[in-house]
Amino acid sequence: MAAISFCNTKYVRLWPVLILLSVALLLVWRNLQQAQKLASSKIVGHTSVGLLLSNDSKPSSLSADFHLAYDHHPKFIRREDSVRTKELRSLLKCRDRSLRFQRLQHGDFWLLQNLVLGRRSREVGCAESVTYTTNGDFTFFDNLEMVVSRWRAPVSFAIHTPGYDLNTTLDAIRYVRNCLPESDSIKDWVSFHVYFPNQHMPDYVPYDEAEVLLYPHMCTLANGSLVSPPYTRIPTTESYKSRANLTYPINVGRNIARLAANTHFIFACDIELYPSVGFVDQFLDMVARNHSVLALDPRQRRRVYPLPVFEIETGVQVPADKNELLSLYRKQQAQVFHLKLCPTCHTIPGQEEWLNRTSRADDQLHVFSKALRKRKFRAWEPFYVSDNTEPLFDERVTWEGQSNKRIQVSYYCSFAVSVSQCNILLKNYAMCLLDYEYHVLSPAFLVHSPGIKQSSNGDSTRLQYAKEMSKFIQNKIEPEYRVLFGENSACKT
After folding, report:
1. What's the pTM?
2. According to the model, what pLDDT value does residue 78 have?
């Protein structure tokens, strides 16, 4: 009996061990089953993403493919790279990065980065293209079609949307993606980012791109006539920004657009400036053809690649190439940008030679001249291609004014320029301190939206704002820059 009792005690002690082993085996078996299911779901197209979205009460009418775009960690889709792209990726040592939607805080602003993505921009390779980075509010949407039709490459567009201005902006996004001759190109290339101050929140913020695009914009009325663009229906004075007496944080928008780009090269530009046709391929061909245009040696001065800027008379067709531009110039229908406001602000090195040199159809893009932004060119306000490593814009400086009206003040930054232009002057001041070189390109150029800018005295409120901002720059920002970037008496704001 003692032996039997001993055995019973021994087996009783083994029961918990056997139970634990059984549970462990069951868990392993279940994990293997789940892994097999997950693998099969990836093969058929990440159906788990669609299930997840349907559990979040997203509209079931949207297809699974439509929802794939809103995965917070989308898989980068590799295409077969061209020989040029492979060569440039190796030369630039850059990494491809897919675009994805994010909700972010940017200083005092909430940012919906990549709220609506360009179909082709989202997967573009780092060395495959150049991103046009720009900014504005809903009143600037009338420029987007012209920019995209000429650029034909990624566009990163940051839009200021305080309060109910977000509703108009969402309508504008739907309109330009559906109702314009170039809507397909806008769908392909433009990625939209919206941002608003945390003190001026909209009542409604879309959850994701699917929610923005769920309601397609109606392009025609019942009688067949075209619907007017939403960005033309609301007077500027009726916008939330205007009624709340807000200044436009232009440098916040510029930086948001820059930071969202996924290409090695960017072109930070105002949306009212239209590039000559075919520039992106011309630029990348130039770099692939002649690596020496880049500062690949760390001992070389860092460099950027400006384009000459012009303005044309109202009613004149925007020139596609240099020959068309020079034809307008000779007929006095085109001139250097802001010639009557600040003659030195857009004078390039070798300008007369640039204007006197005609362009052949087979002319390749090349570096025409180069200079430092010092002495004779200390007032230069270039727009340029860069590798996106130059200093960001100072977000303490804003653009006071409405729509495309600008402040013109003789004492501002020591030149008769606008607040928007002074933002550029301030950034180029930092680059001057860092000893950047400016390599001007030809035959490419920029043209401002038609209309010659005329001198204006402006209203007293805006002039007072400019005066106060000028003092702030001189007394606060300039001393900070000299500490951060070094002293150089040849550099001026």
Report:
1. 0.81
2. 55
